[in-house]
Design goal:
about 50% helix, about 450 residues, nine-stranded parallel beta sheet
């Protein structure tokens, strides 16, 4: 069985293969400096400069020949090299037609090999004020983080705050277009009370007289979990563990170091926390106990993210898929807090939450390319749930993204595509996929 150290060593090896040598060396230096935050900050500054140098690189190649070759390789069943997938992400916008042609070929293959219906995921949030925020929350614009422990979060004001079994069960039983429910608590680690509420909710649903509810796939997103937690959840009837890695291993260390930049001479912490390892541990423990995961990323998170950072995240999921298949990933494009809802700029100042700088809005072509890269790296059985930030895809690209990924978020604050749009896209793609089947064979999305 793969151990956490085995997996981290594999990630380190993959990083050496995809990053430019000087950036790879700087990342390794940062990893070895987590016990000395001042030094880590200095290294992070150097990494920032290197990232800016490399993230704008361009390839002088015949793009038509490039796309013709890799499309033919894919059709022939040959694997596409990581080097070519990186080049794909750097393809200029005048290659959009070639990207879409390849995307349709890959999407058709994934639909053929994956007989499961398009997964439409509805999130049900509980305990929506996080009392112990992780590094991602303190550095980012996480709306679950309060100004201090005495106040509610922005999320609680938007979503309310489910905190009993009865409230959970009512929300799950509420008829929805979605065919999958995700039960979410928002703390870094779950309390014993919260865990009992989740367990008893799943047990009650599994004992329901309503066959729709009784058989509904139930994903749980509860922060870091130990083996005992996971075994109890599986026994209760949970079908999947959600815990997002958010970004690649080395980029997470970089973000952690950058979060201490307010005062380099007196950082907030003397040592940096390796949050990413804890998240990997939860996923590995779930796979060890034969329960799959839903784990994804928050992509285009600030101006410093590179193509290679995203590629390393996708490669990490490929390694996890080798342990146990049938996993999935939410595909989230970072939405700055002041863009989530109309009133959030007011809440932003009230709660004094920092927003990661991203000077330019992400264009839909870049989003589509990185979704295609993700799908080329992970197993064809690995669903990718198009969720946060999907508003930037626009209607045409959103339909292509759902077709390629096999999944779509629905009707929650992150979605940014109204539910009617999602329903229409999913219905159309479902009809196309099952056109040759009898009506009874078409999955019921309700």
């Amino acid at each position: 069985m793969t151990t956490l150290n085995d997996l981290v060593r594999k990630i380190q090896t993959l990083a050496e293969e995809i990053y430019p040598p000087d950036l790879s060396a700087a990342y390794s230096e940062l990893e070895n400096s987590l016990n000395d935050t001042r030094n880590a900050i200095k290294i992070a500054k150097k990494i920032k400069e290197l990232k800016q140098t490399y993230k704008t690189k361009a390839y002088s190649i015949d793009w038509s020949d490039f796309f013709e070759r890799i499309t033919q390789d894919f059709k022939n069943g040959s694997s596409i090299s990581i080097e070519d997938i990186i080049k794909l992400e750097y393809a200029p916008e005048d290659q959009a037609d070639n990207v879409i042609e390849l995307l349709n070929v890959v999407a058709a293959n994934r639909a053929t090999e994956n007989n499961e219906a398009i997964r439409v995921c509805q999130s049900i949030y509980a305990f929506t004020t996080c009392l112990t925020p992780c590094n991602y929350g303190t550095y980012g614009s996480c709306i679950f983080v309060p100004k201090d422990n005495e106040e509610t979060s922005v999320a609680e004001r938007i979503l309310g705050n489910i905190n009993t079994v009865d409230e959970f069960v009512d929300a799950i039983k509420n008829k929805s277009y979605s065919n999958n429910r995700k039960l979410i608590t928002t703390s870094r680690t779950i309390t014993s009370h919260q865990f009992r509420v989740i367990l008893n909710t799943i047990r009650e649903i599994r004992a329901s007289d309503d066959p729709h509810c009784r058989d509904l796939p139930m994903c749980v997103s509860l922060g870091s979990l130990n083996e005992d937690h996971i075994i109890q959840l599986k026994d209760a009837g949970a079908t999947r563990i959600n815990h997002n890695l958010e970004t690649s291993y080395f980029n997470s260390l970089y973000l952690s170091a950058m979060s201490q930049m307010e005062d380099e001479q007196k950082p907030k912490k003397k040592t940096l926390d390796n949050e990413h390892k804890r998240r990997l541990s939860t996923l590995l423990t779930g796979l060890k106990n034969d329960i799959g995961f839903c784990s994804g990323g928050m992509l285009f998170y600030g101006d410093d993210e590179m193509v290679e950072d995203r590629i390393l995240l996708y490669l990490t999921y490929r390694e996890l898929d080798k342990i146990k298949g049938g996993n999935s990933s939410p595909f989230n494009v970072y939405v700055p807090l002041d863009e989530i809802v109309e009133k959030s700029s007011e809440w932003f100042s009230t709660f004094e939450l920092p927003v990661i700088e991203r000077k330019a809005q992400v264009d839909r072509y870049s989003i589509l390319k990185t979704l295609l890269s993700f799908s080329l790296i992970v197993s064809s059985q690995h669903k990718i749930i198009v969720s946060a930030g999907s508003k930037w895809l626009g209607d045409e690209y959103y339909a292509l993204a759902v077709k390629l990924s096999g999944g779509a978020g629905l009707a929650n604050y992150l979605q940014q595509i109204d539910s009617e749009t999602t329903k229409n896209v999913v219905d159309k793609l479902t009809r196309e996929k099952f056109a040759s089947s009898s009506p009874a064979a078409i999955p019921n999305q309700m």
